[in-house]
Amino acid sequence: MKICSTCQNPLTVLVNPGDGQDADVVDASSSTHHAYMVDDDVELQYAYIVTECANCGNNVANGTEHVDQKVVCNIKNEGGLQEGVDILPLLLEESYLRAFPEERRPWAFLEFCAEGDIEAIVALLDDDDDDDGDDEDDDDGEDVTENWIDPLRYQDPINSLSSGLHIAIAHGRIEVAWLLLLLATTLPMSKFPSEVLQAADRLQLSRGDQSGKVDIRTLKDGEGMTPAQRAGIAGDIWNDWLTSGRLIA
Fold first, then answer.
1. Spatial CB neighbours of 139, under 8 Å, sequence gap ≥ 6
2. pTM value > 0.85
3. For a disulfide at 112, which of 82, 90, 117, 118, Cβ 3.0-4.6 Å?
């Protein structure tokens, strides 16, 4: 087992100690990084500190800052041993969301778009409608309603500023793309297939007033590319979409 080169303490932590369950062991020795794991989520004690030794605070990351860094850990729990798991993406996500809790819902929305989970998307949007104007506290007691963010137009601040439509295209989620066009664009209703409109009716979905709102087809990701441009790169199932022009605002 590796140790921190500065304080000589083992880079291993117990997870969920004292909760009446067997604790997980996270051995960060494979990359000399440190992280706390709680259930299947990653919890940071300090936002953005993801490559420091938990004992002495020394930066023990391999490689140069922000370039090819990984937090490769061996995780042992009741499910067995998982070796070589890079948890840095989860660490970065969770540290960001702990700093900006109002973005948890729109972040989850993007994950549902990637997974093609229409039911979860609809449920999340319904929850947002129900909570509109109501006071809501996050786990830390902070009011997050006043900082409400529209999931339909949210862009991932960590992963290239991708919107839900960008992500749907990248993952080949045609049904999600249709749903997003219905809810957050000005594409004429006559351009939608009857089966899409029938599905929306079953889900009790309808387009709200789009006045003063950004048409999601105009959103650009971190590389300055619109969903249509991403569809052009993806090709295949999106070729018809490009020919029809439905991705152009």
1. 101
2. no
3. 117
